Amino acid sequence: MAINRETRRTVLWVFIIIILAVLSAIFLYPRYKEKQAKIAELNSRKAVLAQKEAERRQLSGEVEALQNDPETVGRVAREKFGMGKDGERVVIYK
Predict the structure, then answer these.
(1) What predicted TM-score, i.e. pTM, was given to this entire model?
(2) How far is C-alpha 45 from the chain's CA centre?
(3) What is the predicted pLDDT for the residue at 87?
(4) Contact 76/66 with Cβ under 8 angstroms?
(5) What is the distance between the alpha carbons of residues 36 and 50, in angstroms, rounded to a whole number?
(6) What is the spatial distance between Cα 52 and Cα 46, in angstroms, rounded to a whole number?
(7) What phi and psi, each to the nearest 5 degrees, are found at residue 69?
(8) CA nearest 93: which of 84, 82, 83?
(9) What is the mean pLDDT of residues 66-86?
(10) Is 16 helix (H, G, I), strand (E, B) or coil?
(11) What does the alpha-carbon distance between residue 8 and residue 11 come to, in Å, rounded to a whole number?
């Protein structure tokens, strides 16, 4: 049974399309993986940035309190430097 010319042409086009699809997958898959890795890195860096922003806000609040609140200054002086108010006796436990 002979295959007519039109059927051969159709089979040839299907074969060419399949070859192009396979080649596209072979060449595009590494790019896809690279993009996924970059997206993961970006998300990781965004998380670090959010953490650093929260830390910056906390530190800004502490600086504000140290600049404007005498009670905070006194508390930090007692806790970090072992200082006391006039008339207080400082006892340090180790």
Answers:
(1) 0.59
(2) 3
(3) 75
(4) yes
(5) 21
(6) 10
(7) -120, 110
(8) 82
(9) 84
(10) helix
(11) 5
Q: DSSP readout, 41-89?
A: HHHHHHHHHHHHHHHHHHHHHHHHHHHH-HHHHHHHHHHHH----TT--
56 token code pair = 């910056």
Per-residue pLDDT of 5-56, as tens digits, reads 889 999 999 999 999 999 999 999 999 999 999 999 999 999 999 999 999 9
Specify the amino acid at residue 61.
G
Query: At 91, which amino acid appears?
Result: V
Q: How many residues does the chain have?
A: 94
